[in-house]
């Protein structure tokens, strides 16, 4: 490594990136992009989905190798070849999709990470370090708890704690609040602010401007792989200017107009579902969803929403009640029969439950068409037809960041969601179950998702929209109900709904 003119922690920038280029499958993801991060600062990296935010941070931590450009850490030009080398240089990244082993305990994950970084320790020593660091950070975290049994917020704490125990002085958080409640997000951002005030450098990848205003010192904005605003002061700035730089001007969104619904497409009567531990997740739930309407189900997370989606999808059984899809009995129907009846599912976690990151876009788009024979018999698939269909879908849905051969895991969140919509909202979709379809997406990607759902409903489908985002529920739904402790309130027309009334139902006070 060669020192720069001003080397040394606290004087030189913690991280300096210049003229970074990166392309995937011939499609540029970064073009001459840059980023400068100082110690003692929380620095927001803002931009719409697909702007290149996660990509440039993955270059910083050597997850990706840049095609061109320079990365300087602590004033030294580095040649970081692996994430382990990046950690040794003091860079730690908490990714959107956590890198923890679900079947391992928190302490086992920490011991595994320390061992991989050349700092082997026993499980008892790892547990001691977890307890001490958790107390220091004011975390509530059991070192002996299995990760898969922790809440999302607890898993994130474990990820942050793991990175800090590995010695990270430069901390990169990629959309850390996307899957958190408002209270959990405030707690995490307060911790981020504290870590910077103690002398660390923190890069916060986000598209939420209120987080920038409340917790950040500087902001860099990216658009279409380029840096359009570099290291601007947040104090005294106009957030509307930041928004225009990030996503441009967006037209106003109309509220749902009254509709005359058609025939019932989804009928549920007295449905009950159990969790894996045998506890009640859904109790006596009934609803009727008709063609041409969107029924929104609001509610705080953990009130049975994932279990309802899994049951409707055919992934978990009902213990009581009935489900009818497009007039067909489907309570115990296998997934394939539900699909034939027109069921389409947009799960809350597309990377875990819908897309296969290692497969190219063409194959991800073809997954639900193979069993229908859309590409020939399964033992002799017509790959040319598959590629042509994918090219059409990529163009029509404006999926950016790759071509038909690009692995889906390389797409940004917004483009991955467009990919999922392209597959699920085809001509055969009659009943759409969409769970938090815009979670973690920026304004433009959210608009694209909402427009796609509206279009499918205008063409005769019915949509069951399940979301913790009240604005999303009230923007899209024709009728709204609230799910609380596994039970559903009586649906009300959107014209009669208010945030206060829905909030009371969500809290169980009405």
UniProtKB/TrEMBL annotation:
Span of domain ABC transporter: 15-249, 266-510
Keywords on record: ATP-binding, Nucleotide-binding
A molecular function (GO) term: ATP binding
Pfam families: ABC_tran
Source organism of the structure: Pseudooceanicola albus
Lineage summary: Bacteria, Pseudomonadati, Pseudomonadota, Alphaproteobacteria, Rhodobacterales
InterPro entries in UniProt: ABC_carbohydrate_import_ATPase, ABC_transporter-like_ATP-bd, ABC_transporter-like_CS, P-loop_NTPase
Gene3D superfamilies, per database record: P-loop containing nucleotide triphosphate hydrolases
Entry keyword annotation includes ATP-binding: yes
Protease recorded as keyword: no
Protein name: ATP-binding cassette domain-containing protein
Entries under PROSITE patterns matching the protein: ABC_TRANSPORTER_1, ABC_TRANSPORTER_2
